[in-house]
Amino acid sequence: MKPVIETERLVLRRLTARDAPFMLDLLNQPSFIRNIGDRGARTVRQAVTYIRNGPVASYARYGFGLYAVVVRDSGETAGICGLVRRAGLDDVDIGFAFLPAHWKNGYAVESARAVKTYAAGVLGLKRLVAITAPGNEPSIRVLDKLGFAFERMVRLEPGDAELKLFSCAL
After folding, report:
1. What are 71's strand-pairing partners?
2. d(CA 66, CA 47)
3. Whether 151 contacts 128, CB under 8 Å
4. What b/e readout covers 108-138, taking b as 16+ CB neighbours within 10 angstroms?
5. Which terminus of the chain has fewer CB atoms gathered within 10 Å of its CB, N or C?
6. Domains of the chain (ranges, CATH numbers)
7. 128-141 pLDDT tens trace
């Protein structure tokens, strides 16, 4: 698979159905469910459906989406990072999630910084937003390092939990 974005330590590439076992693991991490949400994928087949209806559909519709973050040295898929067009938000959202075994290696900052550069330089975006659960301090620290600032509390849909919305001019 051809890389979309490369950094010194990481390769970001489009997700495919072959990533379903990794995605199933990521989607069912307690930290993912607590901070991002339960996507209801409990089987590899459901993970394939999630990939096709989410990232792959986004690539086709918008030309961007969430990407697999692969560690160059090991070839391991550590997490996901990319851009999402969400109903309820006026701007494109940057998102990231990593398996706990890959936390505290700087991969979230490195991949998100590269995605931010890609959003400005290749896609021509002028502003990005990010949403987090209010108590998700690790993600908030990443956003701070990337130059995002807290803007306001939002609900993506009526009745949803309130989320912190951060923004950054590009």
Report:
1. 10
2. 14
3. no
4. bbbbbbbbbebbbeeeebeebbbbbbeebee
5. N
6. 3-169 (3.40.630.30)
7. 999 999 999 999 99
